[in-house]
């Protein structure tokens, strides 16, 4: 099982910073906190994070 800490991530349970890590076990990924018992099955990948500024760009249309 691989572990990868997410820099800057804050645990939603204990509010500690840099304690959130992604545990990769084959095809299964989950997020866990090193400081408390927080666990989440579906991680939020950094590459797929929803950035408000990107959504705004996508939402621009030119009506004819
Ligand atoms: Zn925690």
Describe this structure in words.
InterPro entries: YheV (IPR012658). The chain is mainly β and about 60 residues long. It has a single domain (about 1-60), classed as N-terminal domain of TfIIb (Single Sheet). The chain has 1 helix and 4 strands. The chain is elongated, with a radius of gyration of 16 Å. The mean pLDDT is about 80. The structure holds zinc ion (ZN). Zinc ion binds next to loops.
Which small-molecule ligands are present, each listed once?
zinc ion
Strand content: 25-35%
CATH class: Mainly Beta
Number of helices: 1
Please outline the major beta sheet.
Answer: 4 strands, antiparallel
**How many structural domains are formed by the residues?**
1
In the CATH hierarchy, the architecture is Single Sheet
- Overall mean pLDDT stands at 81
Cα end-to-end separation: 54 Å
Radius of gyration: 16 Å
Low confidence ranges: none
Order of helices and strands: EEEEH
Q: From the helix content, strand content and strand pairing, which structural class follows?
A: mainly beta
Helical coverage, percent range: 10-25%
Pfam families: DUF2387
Region (Disordered): 41-64
Organism: Corallincola platygyrae
Protein name: YheV family putative zinc ribbon protein
Give short descriptive properties of this protein.
64 residues; mainly beta; N-terminal domain of TfIIb; four-stranded antiparallel β-sheet; 1 helix; 11% helix; 28% strand; elongated; binds zinc ion; YheV; YheV family putative zinc ribbon protein
Could you provide a short overview of the structure?
By secondary structure, the protein is mostly beta strands. It has one helix at residues 52-58, and strands spanning 2-5, 20-25, 28-33, 39-40. The chain has a single domain (2-58), classed as Single Sheet (N-terminal domain of TfIIb).
């Amino acid at each position: 099982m691989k572990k990868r800490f997410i820099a800057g991530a804050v645990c939603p349970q204990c509010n500690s910073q840099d304690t959130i890590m992604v545990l990769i076990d084959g095809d299964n990924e989950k997020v866990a906190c090193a400081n408390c018992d927080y666990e989440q099955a579906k991680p939020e990948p950094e590459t797929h994070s929803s950035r408000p500024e990107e959504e705004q760009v996508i939402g621009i249309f030119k009506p004819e």
